[in-house]
Amino acid sequence: MKKHEKNKIIKGLILIASLIFLGVSLFLTNTKENYWEKLSGKLNISSQVTNCEMEVHFLDVGGADCAYIRCRDYNILIDAADKEPTEPVCEYLSNHNVKKLDLVVMSHPHRDHIGQMKSVIDNFKIDKFIQSDIPDDVLPTSVTYENMLKALVDKKVNTQTLAAGDKFNLGDLKFKVLGPVKSSENINNCSLVVKVVYKDVSFLFTGDAEKFEENTMLKSGENLHATVLKVGHHGSTTSTTPNFLKSVSPKYAVISSENKPNKNSVIKRLEETCVGVYKTYEKGNIIFLTDGKNIDIKTEK
Residue 70: in which H helix or E strand, if any? Predict the structure, then answer.
């Protein structure tokens, strides 16, 4: 075989190897891109978190609340939106390949927090469901609430009533209940307030807790500080008092709301305190990714 023919063969083999390498690289890149697109709705590759161990999704569910947490093999749901729009909670969970929920948290039984809870109970295996203790005379009598209770009984879900001071773990995730400290005739002030901690990062979920419950938590002497605050009562002026916000001292805040409110005193305080204030009515789904130390934030819009 002549020398120039050997060179042609060698060049051909190098070209084939290069094309194979390029194809594999494109496949891996597209796979990664598809994951992020499914995760956040918009491709924006993380710059700080190279090994995402925990995701906290704040769903854009109008003037309601719903958050989904994935940490390693654990799946957690906190509240389940309103009855409208139809079934986005179950659809969102299914799109993220959730088969089982290790924990479901009901902050309080107002419809904009439990609207789709029955569907969640019907469609997913639930290991534990937690709620706060609410006086019988103020419990709602709505069809939504009654249907949820029936679904819990029918599916024989392990249901527990917790109060301030209770704590438990799911793997490396630590949960501590900070409220309610005292009983109230206002269901909002019976909201189950839960701090979720993963390594150096913490999230505080406050339901619709108002000034009364915030003050009781402050007086309890518990450590309220959190990296991320899910702002109470959709950012309304009933909640997030100056002293409470000072005690929590969050780096980031999330407001789940349907319409852009006037720039009230709460939003002004948050913008003065936090590095970032994220609102579902502006950003759509808001997703925090963390390795337990660093945080990246993805938004749908």
Answer: strand 67-71
